[in-house]
Amino acid sequence: MDKVVASAAEAVADIGSGASLAVGGFGLCGIPQTLIDALVAGPASDLRVVSNNCGVDDWGLGMLLGQRRIARVIASYVGENKEFERQFLSGELEVELIPQGTLAERLRAGGAGIPAFFTPAGVGTPVADGGMPLRYAADGSVELASDPKEVRSFDGRDYVLEHGIVTDFAIVRASLGDRHGNLVFDKATRNFNPLAATAGRITIAEVERLVEPGEIPAEHIHTPGVFVQRVVVLTPEQVVTKRIERRTVTAPTAAASGTESS
């Protein structure tokens, strides 16, 4: 089955307003920017997004945030996105912040058909006890808070019940893919991408390089094609268009610059 579609716009055309969306990437590393660009160009709004974070103000999911197209976010941290912070604190955006490992496991569990699981992460905190702000009012008060979660003891240790996440759609970026949707992620891009890919009822992957079925050794595949419904092949320009969330530069030493001190 050839899952390649002609364009990113065609691939996301049925992502409508109010849809839930799992998005791969970590910061700006491995994010499906071309598919996000297609969503920005389209009409969908009131989106419910599940992602480790929301990029930065003018890149990644931050572009949809800037247009007020996202209504709710499940994430691990706000990161470098000041608009994300502003919308949350001003009551314009509903946000569920959860431990990063719990988010990863909730996505993995949803993709594996596991409805819920117990974890020690968050026990004894508002994550388990409830009361964590989900939405603020305009005056800064808490308008909506999280409910308490079930806590159960196993072998003398307490664990909190967390639910698996399944979304209407998932969008991810892979370094290598084939026409059947089998995906390989390179180095640090293998962050939340495989997890998000399994959690979507319809998963769309943008791939930097496309090969024919059978060219990727089975043992090298990170996400099997059974989880992927659509593949978008990136242009050379789209492949190299990547950004760094925070660039850190170290001043050259005398030895590195080819000079000697007297």
List keywords for this structure.
alpha/beta; eight-stranded mixed beta sheet; 262 residues; three-stranded antiparallel beta sheet; globular; 9 helices; 13 strands; 27% strand; 23% helix; Glutaconate Coenzyme A-transferase
Mean pLDDT: 94
Number of domains: 1
Mass-distribution shape: globular
Structural class: alpha/beta
Query: Which CATH-level-2 architecture?
Result: 3-Layer(aba) Sandwich
Sheet with the most strands? 8 strands, mixed
> CATH superfamily membership, which one?
Glutaconate Coenzyme A-transferase
Rg estimate, integer Å: 20 Å
Q: List segments where confidence is low: pLDDT < 50 over at least 5 consecutive residues.
A: none
CATH topology title: Glutaconate Coenzyme A-transferase
**What's the helix count?**
9
Strand content: 25-35%
Structure summary, number of beta strands: 13
* Spatial gap, N to C terminus: 69 Å
**CATH class (first level) name:** Alpha Beta
Order of helices and strands: HEHEHEHEHEHEEEEEEHEEHH
Helix content: 10-25%
In a nutshell, what does this entry contain?
The chain is α/β, with parallel strands linked by helices and 262 residues long.
Describe the overall structure.
- The protein is an alpha/beta fold and 262 residues long.
- It has a single domain, classed as Glutaconate Coenzyme A-transferase (3-Layer(aba) Sandwich), CATH 3.40.1080.10.
- The protein is built from nine helices and 13 strands.
- Strands 1, 2, 3, 4, 10, 11, 12 and 13 form an eight-stranded mixed beta sheet that branches. A three-stranded antiparallel beta sheet has the order 5-9-8. It has a two-stranded antiparallel sheet with strand order 6-7.
- Strand 2, helix 3 (62-66) and strand 3 form a beta-alpha-beta unit.
- It is globular, with a radius of gyration of 20 Å.
- The mean pLDDT is 94.
